[in-house]
């Protein structure tokens, strides 16, 4: 009786193993172009810990959420110009097939890049430029101090060793979702532009201290003389003529004018300067 039981158990084991192997094979075939997502791939590479790649933070939203880079973007190791000093070097980087932006700590932000080029750069990384509202949501929880900035705070008063500083220098300058440097260091391009002071059929206020904003972080009222502590003394810059690109957050010497609500709608989408960088989303 014992021999019969062992024989049955043997056949069952062989049959079960065969079913498992067939299932794994079918799954691998279905995921031939994305092996890490297959059963075999998850055994070999491990199961991802979250909905976003390691270099990105997950931001919950009404539409199910999105991912945004944890750090201001920098050129990857294969880029010809790892520290970009002019727009010509940005063009050279973008023309090189293996060069794309990355989100890493302790790297110099990619500057001298226009809004148009930032869109192209994010596309090369398989990502996109975040919208203004996405950027604003992702920035929530970042300490938006008005005075007494130290080396662990967001850089808005030349308070890091370098200007701009290496990404992630300010350990306290992190949002509730794990995105660093969203206030200060460099302005960050976001997707969208205004035309003659109009955004989606809506007239925007003139430049001034923000005293009211909508749920997307877009200023609705300003005061030309007096800062509002409820909006962290943040400032709104705009030119109400021609087409202007959108940047958010402030840069390394904006002081209290920088912040979650601060926006810079002054330069055309073609502008590439020393104080403007970007990060990507997906």
Describe this structure in words.
The chain is an alpha+beta fold. The chain folds into two domains: 2-45; 56-277, paralog of FGE (formylglycine-generating enzyme), CATH 3.90.1580. It contains five helices and 13 strands. The protein has helices at 2-30, 39-45, 87-95, 115-124, 132-139, and strands at 56-59, 66-69, 74-75, 101-102, 187-195, 198-199, 202-203, 208-213, 219-223, 235-238, 243-248, 263-265, 276-277. A seven-stranded mixed β-sheet has the order 9-8-10-12-11-5-13. The protein has a two-stranded antiparallel ribbon with strand order 1-2. The chain is globular, with a radius of gyration of 24 Å. Residues 12-26, 28-37 and 39-48 have low confidence and may be disordered.
Q: What average pLDDT do the residues reach? A: 88
| Largest sheet: number of strands, sense, barrel closure | 7 strands, mixed
User: Structural class, please?
Assistant: alpha+beta
What quaternary form is this? single chain
| H/E topology pattern | HHEEEHEHHEEEEEEEEE
What is the CATH C level class of the largest domain, in words?
A: Alpha Beta
**Amount of beta strand:** 15-25%
Tally of individual helices: 5
The neighbouring-strand order within the major sheet is 9-8-10-12-11-5-13
Number of domains: 2
Rg over CA atoms: 24 Å
Report low-confidence residues grouped into runs of 5 or more.
12-26, 28-37, 39-48
Helix content: 10-25%
Question: Overall 3D geometry?
Answer: globular
The CATH architecture of the largest domain: Alpha-Beta Complex
Number of strands: 13
